[in-house]
Amino acid sequence: MPHTRSSRKGARIPFAAFLLCLTAGILLFPPAASCAGRDSDVGSIDGVVLALYESISFPEGKTPDWDRFRNLFLSAASPCVRMASDGVLVMDREAFIAFFEGRIRKGTLKSFAEREVARTTEIYGGLAQVFSTYEKRMNLADPGTPARGINGLQLFFKDGRWWISSLAWQDEHAGLLIPPKYVK
Predict the structure, then answer these.
(1) Gap between the Cα atoms of 137 and 109, Å rounded
(2) Contact yes or no for 150/178 (Cβ under 8 A)
(3) Which pTM was predicted?
């Protein structure tokens, strides 16, 4: 009997450790269902794309909805790549937020509005590639012509929702016009 009691006592520590780890895991990495945010944001590709544009757009005196933005991505390490005429800037999701916030803090970005004007989507099973042509305006009180470009999103379907695994974008410029097939 002492052997059984000893086994039982020893089993309590690993079981307690298991419960502690399980609880910590749930608190640090909640299940996808509790992270779903707005179901309309992640239940469809349309919802994800709309939420992406709405989350980064903001009027003067406000800021982007970074919680909503974060909820769209698989993780903080999801790549966000800015293609520009002066080079390529590779960031993760959190570095993108810091980059955007830096411009707001400096006052160079007082307001921002970006909207989709056309989309091309390819889907295979739970994998999607989206080219979303956008029109954007910065500092909305200032006159000026909106800029256009293309957001390239890679998405996948998991846990009953769509996730952005990566985002890359490039603005249109004189030497790089958007092809007609991406503005229909």
Answers:
(1) 10
(2) yes
(3) 0.78
